[in-house]
Amino acid sequence: MKYIYIKTWGCQMNEYDSSMIANLLEKEKKYLLTSLIEKANILILNTCSIREKAQEKLFHQLGRWRKIKNKNPEIIIAVGGCVAVQEGKNIFKRANYVDIIFGTQTLHKLPKMISEIEKNKKHTIDISFPKLEKFKYASKPIKTKYTEMVSIMEGCNKHCSFCIVPYTRGHELSRPCNDILFEISSLAKQGVREINLLGQNVNAYKSLTFDGRICSFSKLIRLVAKIDGIDRIRFITSHPVEFTDDIIEVYKDTPKLVSFLHLPVQSGSNKILKSMKRLYTVEDYKLIVKKLTIVRPNIQISSDFIVGFPGESEQDFQQTMNLIKDINFDMSFSFIYSRRPKTPASKMKDNIQIEEKKKRLYILQNRINMQTMLWSRKMFGSTQSILVEGVSNKNIMELFGRTENNRIVTFKGSPKMIGKFVNLKINKIHTHSLKGTLI
Ligand code: SAH
Ligand code: F3S
Question: pTM of the predicted model, to two decimals?
């Protein structure tokens, strides 16, 4: 038996890919996943290149693994994910002790690549984009939790001017809806109660049903909602451009779809949105939220923001702050703009001082934190349905679970409740977590 250790950076998509890698290798019956790096024979790094100095971070990490390999030359090192696609063979040049380079769409080739290395091949690389092939090999679901992610589409065609994803994950491709429904039904039979539909751009989803009709994203949600045992549905990430009325309709008649939506807006300035190539205006965004609030008055919206995009003036930034107040966003993610290779924005003149960018980020995050706290406070004394996920990390006498709006709640209960929905009265509030008692 050989032990594999996987280190994952980045988004939920990468987490999902890493769990596919683990399933795939364990299926071979020769490999076992370990969380102890000292025990591992194969080290796998699943990388992310969305921001920061991704390459530097990669080579730092590889430098640490090199020391492990120096002590034990038998160890196999594999690098995958977005930086692997971006850098390709260059990784071998700078770190010749790396054995395998695989891409975001070729992780299913890992068993073959590992055995080539075991047969004394020096290096092996495959960062091609075979269409959805990985799902044929690796989608067999293995239940690990009561809430599971299911990938419904891969890649992105939007080409926002700042974003590297279309280059590292490829074109938008939707998985056949029958495969998705089969996978979710099988998870439901194993006890999964909540599904998070995953994709870079889920509302661009499109495939055919078994009888040849078009299955849009809204149709897919309705079909998932029909599966026995699945009582809560989330999705991430959707894009304002394809947030069409048929999706808003689903909120009207599908209570299993949570009243919480992550809808990245990036900026509150139309000038910046245009230069980001987001293809919508602030007014379009507000209209979507307005329509949603009509069908779901209690819906909460979260978002992603970029500050310091090339050309963002103080006034543009103020417009983002105004939008934050207007929409009353709940907990959100925000980043300083980071120049990414190959992207159109990387050629724009970056005229804002780093101190100014940091200041803007600080102001924005303070405001979001305050609003998040206010949303949480509103929940004081309310009854919330939570899916109990397990024993709390902080206190083994307590259980924890999540509310519809993604708050972790801890409470005293019986282990028999794990994997079930319970109703709690919320009686203590922190910004990102809550405490409750059973009712
Ligand atoms: N598909 C999603 C975004 C995926 S990337 C969407 O529709 O928006 C996740 C987030 O990272 C983005 O929403 C953006 O806020 C941030 N991001 C992406 N590229 C970035 C860059 N070059 N600099 C800073 N933040 C970036
Ligand atoms: Fe990136 Fe824009 Fe697609 S942020 S993932 S190019 S929608």
Answer: 0.93
